[in-house]
Amino acid sequence: MRFNVLASGSSGNATLISTGKTSVLVDCGLSARELVKRVEMVGSRIQDISAIIITHEHSDHVRALKTLAKKLNIYVYISPVAFDYLKLTSEPSIKLAEKLIPNQPFEIGDLQFWSVPVPHDSVDPLVFTIESKGSKMAIVTDLGYIPKQVAKYLIGCDALVLEANHEVEMLRISSYPWATKQRILGQNGHLSNNEMARFLREDFDQKAQYLILAHLSEQNNHPELAKLAAMTALNDKTPLFASLAENRVLTAFPDRPLGWIDL
Fold this sequence. Notes:
Blueprint: E1 2-7, E2 14-18, E3 23-26, H1 32-41, E4 51-53, H2 59-62, H3 65-72, E5 75-77, H4 80-85, E6 95-96, E7 105-108, E8 111-117, E9 126-132, E10 135-140, H5 148-151, E11 159-163, H6 168-172, H7 178-185, H8 193-202, E12 210-214, H9 223-237, H10 239-245, E13 249-251, E14 261-262
Parallel strand pairs: 3-4, 4-5, 5-6, 10-11, 11-12, 12-13
Antiparallel strand pairs: 1-2, 1-14, 2-3, 7-8, 8-9, 9-10
């Protein structure tokens, strides 16, 4: 199994996962034209995608959904609540896959998924773990904090795509409206560098070969700040592990693909 974060941030999110036999797209928050471009940039073909999986209904995760689902004629895996919210029932050419039941597995080709409900300000937000042939990864973004019941699903991951949305003080002094700041900082908002680091210190099992810091705010965070917070937390937990992991703590980009990571 390998994956490539095609885009990550408030301007759009998409991750391509492939086994050679099966390719799926987790979120499609860019324009359809840009998403096709990025899939081709990493040496893949949009027509080889087997299914689209949606974490939640916010526009930076579903922007290209209708266009791609119609064009590719493939199943969409999405919470039925989010499906109804987006009024996709009025789009008969969009095929809803079997209902996603939280904390239950489903399969697409030789990929096994597990959907996990998380705290976020959307109608039915989910994160996913993905497994194939003994490898496991998780995409954990768009949640205000990581509850213990979510952390347990992340045990045994070989790679984590983990939100590090904002540096708290940068957000507090930003030009964002007060209500927006409160939403982002709340338990149904986005992970701060502090909460990401807390998870690494307290709940991370240190198995992951790769840690991808994702969904960074372009206004209220910086890749070096996010990486420093992660590395400090890892060093606090196990200094030797931190030294081994430094070259494998990466940040995803809003404007270009990260590059393939093989597990």
